[in-house]
């Protein structure tokens, strides 16, 4: 777990001390179970040990939107709502069996006590919150793009590593994330592949012409 951004620069001994100080536990969840649902008070910060989850929101018409996907060891979840002690209006769904470290949010209350471990983790948490703000700003910019092709291009540029975007999203989840329909997304992806911009391989999308994609932004 010390590979998580939340535990950056932690030693194994410091991590063990953190578990004692914070009263954190590792919980196991079955596939399709909910970690939290709309109406739940967020009082824990979650760190993914294993598995894959999706953060989803359902509107009043029943339309489901995937807000984020978590599949990497050490990813931090629900930090904003939990730190602010807000009521959730999202559902965190386990797409597979999962193991999750659950940290009581009261541990982060510096008015209660301050220790070297707490000071260290608070510094890391501030960085994570700043990155989350940047991510949300990027998504707003993506969704405000004029065309679906521009949205896809922005999404691919933001999620690629070595010219390959592999978020683990299904086509339906990607469509929800981009606020479009699955048929429209599939048609546009095939059109972009025919144009030589990308190459499709399941959930993996390879960027073939980065310059042309960037020209769309």
Automatic annotation (TrEMBL):
Ranges for domain HTH crp-type: 146-211
Keywords: DNA-binding, Transcription, Transcription regulation
Record-linked InterPro entries: cNMP-bd_dom, cNMP-bd_dom_sf, Env_Response_Regulators, HTH_CRP, RmlC-like_jellyroll, Tscrpt_reg_HTH_Crp-type_CS, WH_DNA-bd_sf
Domain Cyclic nucleotide-binding residue range list: 6-108
Membrane-spanning residues: none
Record-linked Pfam families: cNMP_binding, HTH_Crp_2
Keyword Membrane: no
Database matches in SMART domains: HTH_CRP
Keyword DNA-binding: yes
One GO cellular component term noted in the UniProt record for this chain: cytosol
Recorded superkingdom: Bacteria
One GO MF term: DNA-binding transcription factor activity
Name assigned to this protein: Cyclic nucleotide-binding domain protein
């Amino acid at each position: 777990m010390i590979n998580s951004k939340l535990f950056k620069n932690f030693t194994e001994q410091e991590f063990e001390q953190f578990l004692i100080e914070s009263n954190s536990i590792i919980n196991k969840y079955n596939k399709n179970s909910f970690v939290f649902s709309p109406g739940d008070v967020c009082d824990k910060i979650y760190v993914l040990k294993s598995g894959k989850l999706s953060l989803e929101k359902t509107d009043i018409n029943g339309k489901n939107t995937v807000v984020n996907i978590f599949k990497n060891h050490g990813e931090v979840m629900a930090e904003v709502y939990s730190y602010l002690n807000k009521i959730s209006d999202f559902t965190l769904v386990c797409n597979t069996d999962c193991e999750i470290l659950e940290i009581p949010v009261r541990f982060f209350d510096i008015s209660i006590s301050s220790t070297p471990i707490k000071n260290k983790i608070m510094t890391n948490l501030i960085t994570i919150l700043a990155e989350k703000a940047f991510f949300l700003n990027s998504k707003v910019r993506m969704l405000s793009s004029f065309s679906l092709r521009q949205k896809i291009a922005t999404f691919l540029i933001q999620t690629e590593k070595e010219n390959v975007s592999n978020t683990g999203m299904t086509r339906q989840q990607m469509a929800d994330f981009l606020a479009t329909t699955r048929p429209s997304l599939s048609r546009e992806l095939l059109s972009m592949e025919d144009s030589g911009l990308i190459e499709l391989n399941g959930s993996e999308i390879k960027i073939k012409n980065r310059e042309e994609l960037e020209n769309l932004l």
